Amino acid sequence: MTPDEHVVLLDTDGNAIGTAPKTAVHGPDTPLHLAFSSYVFDRQGRVLLTRRASHKLTWPDVWTNSCCGHPLPGEPIPDAVVRRLSYELGLQVDRVDLLLPRFSYRAVMDNGIVERELCPVYRAVVSAEAVPNPDEVGQVRWVPWKEFAHDVLSGGMDISPWCREQLSHLDGLGPDPLSWPVADPADLPPAAR
């Protein structure tokens, strides 16, 4: 992250209403802002899980989906997904598909820091191993999707709150993550189109 990196602030309908420095956004009164979540799969349908770096402001050392981030103002979200996967995990992406165009959540850490994002969810497919950036990622592991979904949905795996919420939606798309239907980009919130 560069010191002047900004995120897109949103109204409740998903329209852009301004920007703010990323470093100043997350706190007890976090405004609604645009983000994304991505789930990286290999050709065998295994999902790449990441443990957030221990020095992260929000949810340090917590296991989560492959990569989350914020598009820069004016940056198409698929481009942001590719950019962050390269930066955080050293991955070159074969394809990026929109899965959940309107996912939104609010989560509060024990220390009162709030995460509040309109966060479309994407699938990325890769053919190579991850090379984690220690500034972002503490650890990675590949897990068969069905095993991961079962562990999270049965309460047997501790995972980030946004990932837990997304899993119930993704699980409904079918057992094979490589054949999930791609969502229509027209269903994205206005600021993400």
CATH architecture: Alpha-Beta Complex
Helix count, per DSSP? Answer: 4
Percent in helix: 10-25%
Main sheet? Answer: 4 strands, mixed
Radius of gyration: 16 Å
What's the average pLDDT? 95
CATH topology title: Nucleoside Triphosphate Pyrophosphohydrolase
Following the backbone from N to C, one meets helices and strands in this order, namely EEHEEEEEHEEEEEHH
Strand content: 25-35%
Shape: globular
Total of domains: 1
The CATH H-level superfamily is Nucleoside Triphosphate Pyrophosphohydrolase
- By DSSP, the count of extended strands is 12
Q: What structural class is derived from the secondary structure elements?
A: alpha+beta
Strand order of the largest sheet: 7-4-11-8
Distance between the termini: 23 Å
Low-pLDDT residue spans: none
CATH class: Alpha Beta
Describe the structure.
- The protein is of the alpha+beta class and 193 residues long.
- The protein has a single domain, classed as Nucleoside Triphosphate Pyrophosphohydrolase (Alpha-Beta Complex).
- The protein is built from four helices and twelve strands, in the order ββαβββββαβββββαα.
